Model the fold of this input.
Amino acid sequence: MLLDWVSGSNWSYLAIFGVAVLDAFFPVVPSESMVILGGAIAGSGEGLNVFLIILAAWAGAVVGDNISYGIGKFAGERTVKGLFKSEKAHQGFDWAERQLAERGSYIILIARFIPFGRTAVTFTSGYTKGLPWHRFFRYDLVAGGVWAVYATMLGYIGGKQFEEQPWKGIVFGLGIAFAVATVIELVRRWREKKNVPEQAAAPDPDS
Done:
């Protein structure tokens, strides 16, 4: 299905932007996979521009994150947690609240690479006190840019390596992204158990 959305057409940039926006508050939408796919197509020479993919992904991520922040700020904690009713999702929000209190704004950078973490942190940043929008925006701008370059270049490098078989480049990029996300998640869980063993586990990607 992703291949139907992202091809050599200029509409692909709009698709990448839109999916990146949705992924911020509807985390079942595969924005990272879309960006990697776009990068792989660009790397294989199929018509997409790698820099425009980065810009589309970056803009979509920042717009989506700021929508989540706005919902958190103006709708409030109760409404946000009512949208995500599972216990695991609520554990994710509890984790985000602790991280913002203990580590400050820089958790926005780290959370972008944690499944559901970015969703929990962006909503929580809005409804918790002490994080004004201008500070959130600065950190989120950097986080979105780093993520967009990272995901695009994973696909682009894979596409360059397998120009004759772009699907292999897509698999290459997705495999590395999965490995990185797994390592980050394992390190995060290990640090939580080591430092604060009584705390609940952080967000689950299946929430």
